[in-house]
Amino acid sequence: MIAVIGIDRYTEWSRLDNAVSDARAAARLFTGLGFEQVTAPLLDEAATGNAMRHLVTDELAQLSPDDSLVVFFAGHGHTHTTDFGDTSVKTGCVIPVDGARPGDARLRQLRLVVPASETAPDTMLLLTFEDYHHRAPPPSVSRRVRIVAPEVAPVLGVQCQIPGRNRERPELDTGEQIVARCIVENSGNGAANAVLQAALSRQPPAVSPAQRVAPGGRTSFDLPIAIPSGLAIDSTVEISIVARDRQFARSASTRIVGVIRKPKLCAPGQLTHTQYRAKLAELRAARVAGDVTQDQFDRYDAELVSCLNDVP
Question: For residue 33, what pLDDT band results from cuts at 50, 70 and 90?
């Protein structure tokens, strides 16, 4: 049996020219002599440290005592010297394609899953790193890490819309009372006692009654909001909505941005003809001054006409 490894294109070490071609030539030579390959040749980027370890622990471990084995390696090597008192022991190492140079630092990530039962205040996680060659922990490597029980708290999210209106840019009337329908989600591990608060410029905030939002659940809120009177046609109204938990300092926010389409200059049936003519004169002056457009003037006039009564 034969296993072949050849590396020219190292990541950290200097590159070689003939290692891969030598490994291929060795594979052809030994297979011509009747040897079987244990696995496909590990060449260049395939010859990682993990791949070479798996070759030994998985592939070669399946051989029987009667098998003859040739391992051919072409690439960089390194000699590691370990001192035991007055005796020095030299160990030869083959370098995988991703091997670090002696003295180089490597960042390694260690992913650990801590059992949920390990939540006692004095529970510690002891991490010990062993030197691969000395088989002993190097200085200043072992660490004790305190395990802290996760905080039981909600994580809120909120989405709102005005039923029956355009989701992206709802049309609003000045002075009208709307209802914002909001869904508050809780992706945390603790229940929330949530309230909604809506704020418009120059308006007192609207606040909803508190409702419970279970962990992993969602709750619907209906929040009445008064649109201010006297807003200009085509003006933008921004409604800021915040969901807050009353116990934990957790919150989430969103906003609804609408546009004023229909003015509320008067109440239907409450405008006399004399009042109508006076307001119309004010609108004409505003149009001449450029404060309102012709389209806005026409919509204001239509609103005034709808409010006329039978009184001259």
Answer: very high
C-alpha pair distances (Å), 188 with each of 154, 195, 208, 248: 4, 17, 22, 12
Q: One-letter amino acid identity for 142?
A: S
pLDDT value at residue 115: 64
Q: What is the pLDDT of residues 198-250, one digit of tens each?
A: 998 777 889 999 999 999 999 999 999 998 877 777 888 899 999 999 988 88
Q: Which structural domains are found in the chain, ordered by start?
A: 2-80 (no CATH), 108-150 (no CATH), 156-262 (2.60.40.10), 273-306 (no CATH)
Q: Which position has the higher pLDDT, 69 or 142?
A: 69
* Global model pTM greater than 0.90: no
Band (pLDDT 50/70/90 cuts) for residue 133 is very low
Cα separation, 209 vs 69, in Å, equals 78
Mean pLDDT of the 145-174 span: 83
